[in-house]
Amino acid sequence: MQLIIDLHKHTERQGPGSVSDTLRALDLMNLPNGQTLKIADIGCGTGGQTLTLVQHLDAEITAVDLFPEFLEELKSNAKKLGLKSRIKTLDASMDNLPFHPGKFDIIWSEGAIYNIGFERGIKLWKKYLKEGGYLAVSEITWITAERPNEIETFWTAEYPEIDTASNKIRLLENNGYTLAGYFYLSRESWMDHYYKPLEAGFDSFLQRNGNTELAKKVIADTKAEIELYRKFGASYSYGFYIARKAF
Ligand SMILES: C[S@@+](CC[C@H](N)C(=O)[O-])C[C@H]1O[C@@H](n2cnc3c(N)ncnc32)[C@H](O)[C@@H]1O
């Protein structure tokens, strides 16, 4: 795990996504004016999207991650940008959060809810939202009705909850949310904003970690994941789901 953290903590994002995706999701919300919004960014990593949100909203953000190393990066970047006073970091697990019910206007989570499963996450987190509050989550999603066996087998083993957008939207509706919008991430959001910056750090990662067999395996596994996306990226992406807690 330490090696995986070390590989990922030097990049802006720890999963597919971009500033324009974050802003597009934000644009699908009808947010109240004239008040400071309370936001939880769950599984924030080094906070790529946290910084975008705080730069574009009158908001106070609680950024949550399991790994303090990622939160330290976020704190240091927020300080450099003069945004530290509006971001609180919390080192906690997303399935055991210390929040009061009805605290947040928005719960944001890019590429992280899979750690506890989409259905469990949307159920657990709903109580922390105000009535009419928004949930914005991105989640691995099939973007075609059929797909090659190889990729179906791989993803179903990795994450059995992978599904089509229509099934994910039904889950949201069945759990007390109203869909406000949906889109899926482009190839650029995967390649230019996630995989290419990660690839650019492979050599320095190996040097830092003494070229050990374990470090080489981390790189080999990451290369295999990237190759899979290059080959089968027409079948899956991250779906971005923006939903409102029903009144
Ligand atoms: C794929 S990364 C996404 C990070 C960031 N949101 C982004 O899009 O760049 C998933 C994040 O979830 C965090 N994570 C994993 N398990 C977690 C848990 N149980 N509670 C909180 N965060 C967790 C990881 O440390 C990691 O930062």
Care to describe what's here?
44% of the residues lie in helices and 24% in strands. With 247 residues, the chain is α/β, with parallel strands linked by helices. It has a domain at 13-143 and 161-186 and 236-245: Rossmann fold. Strands 1, 2, 3, 4, 5, 6, 7 and 8 form an eight-stranded mixed β-sheet that branches. Strand 2 (59-65), helix 4 (68-80) and strand 3 (87-91) form a beta-alpha-beta unit. The chain is globular, with a radius of gyration of 18 Å. Bound molecules: S-adenosylmethionine. The site of S-adenosylmethionine has 20 residues, from helix 3 and strand 2.
Key words describing this protein structure:
247 residues; alpha/beta; Rossmann fold; eight-stranded mixed β-sheet; 44% helix; globular; binds S-adenosylmethionine
Quick take:
The protein is an alpha/beta fold.
Mean pLDDT metric: 97
Shape: globular
Percent of residues in beta strands? Answer: 15-25%
CATH architecture verdict of the domain at 13-143 and 161-186 and 236-245: 3-Layer(aba) Sandwich
Broad structural category:
alpha/beta
The CATH topology annotation of the domain at 13-143 and 161-186 and 236-245 reads as Rossmann fold
Class of the domain at 13-143 and 161-186 and 236-245 in CATH? Answer: Alpha Beta
Bound molecules: S-adenosylmethionine
Query: How large, in whole angstroms, is the Cα Rg?
Result: 18 Å
Distance between the termini: 41 Å
Q: What about the largest sheet?
A: 8 strands, mixed
Name given to the CATH homologous superfamily of the domain at 13-143 and 161-186 and 236-245: Vaccinia Virus protein VP39
Question: Which spans of ≥5 residues are poorly predicted at pLDDT below 50?
Answer: none
Please report the total strand number as a whole number. 8
Estimated helix fraction: 40-55%
The helix/strand order is HHEHEHEEHEHEHEHHHE
Count the DSSP helices: 10
